[in-house]
Amino acid sequence: MSVSKLAQFGIKHVAKGIGRLSTEVLESGKGSYVTTVEGRKMLDFTSGIGVTNLGHCHPAVTKAAQEQVGKLVHGQVNIAFQKPYLELIEFLVPLMPHKSLDTFFFWNSGSEAVEAAVKLARHATKKQNIIVMQGSYHGRTFGTMAMTKSKTVYGENYAPLMPGRETAPSDTAAIVIEPVLGEGGYVPPPAGYLAKVREICDKNNILLIADEVQCGFGRTGKMFAIEHWGVRPDILVMAKGIANGFPLSGIVSRKELMDLQKPGSMGGTYAGNAVSCAAGVAVAKAFQDEKILENVNERGAELLGMLETAWKDSKTGHMIFDVRGLGLMLALECQPGKGYASKIQAKCMEKDMLILTTSIYDTLRFIPPLNITKEDMAEGCRIIREAIDEVAAGEHPPETKTKGQALE
Ligand SMILES: Cc1ncc(COP(=O)(O)O)c(C=O)c1O
């Protein structure tokens, strides 16, 4: 099929319910850039929604996966242990935000891992209900749709979902929280908030589940976001960046909780796939070898500085409601009602940058690779600032322009 027909083919044959930012057809990716089949090179500030956190095709991750493909692709978890799975645990144990988190279960997607956490919480507490936060996003499966409150679109016309609308402590198995709210708008919690949630959990025999699918694995400048507040979760959920694009997710909890589950009640055909685990080992090594967290904090400060400057600038500040976030999980929320975020996003796309909005509010989110170079960040900041300036300029057309004439 000719290159020019590929997008049309996709529009015709790929499920519309997916929805997508662009109809570009990607062919390759390297570092912070992707290249389309038509040779358009785009700076990727989405990282595939916070997944390719070490950039596209990180050489060590690619090499580890290639080598594993030649050794063992599928070592099904209910059949036997496999080496990369155990090696990955060896690398992850010292990275956990609390030493009690020592027993792992791997799955494929974030949603599945959230459901694994809910299964564990119900089983361990013998209680049913789960409390989630307003604005939460936990996935698109039946269980996680019921736990998702960031937008109505995720649950619209799919009911009945998992039941349980009001809940007393004696019926509540777990409180699930994203330590930094993701899809709901990149909102860090107020000081003391998570400690208070921990206290409520302890008092009422409720488990605290930290969903770090989006904010975990270095994204906020610490290995796990919950470390910013020194709070211990009972169950930690991780996915996305842990294998830099290979499907892998997991939960970790204390052995005494995990061992309550009956053998055979957990598992899944592809759960903890050997190639994904080998990629995960390479990711964990890269965090050690390449000072990733330092880079997150340095590049994050540069991006945040640029956004704050735009906020303070009298020419652009009137469009901005808030600038927030931690590390390289940053957001710019625009004043409501004018669609500024989508306009800025469209300008960035014209300037060859992939960038996402988020939440029901008019918000842009910035999730570049955690190892983005200083030069690529400078280029990203230049594009975003230009886009903000141009949208602001379009707001106040020069008097010489006549009606109907393009404003930009
Ligand atoms: C916090 C959070 N939890 C769960 C999920 C679901 O993960 P997945 O899309 O891999 O199922 C996401 C996805 O964006 C997420 O951000």
From TrEMBL:
This is Delta-aminovalerate aminotransferase. GO terms for molecular function: identical protein binding; pyridoxal phosphate binding; transaminase activity. CDD domains: OAT_like. It comes from the Eukaryota. Its cofactor is pyridoxal 5'-phosphate. The lineage of its organism: Eukaryota, Fungi, Dikarya, Ascomycota, Pezizomycotina. Belongs to the class-III pyridoxal-phosphate-dependent aminotransferase family. Keywords: Aminotransferase, Pyridoxal phosphate, Transferase. It comes from Hyphodiscus hymeniophilus.
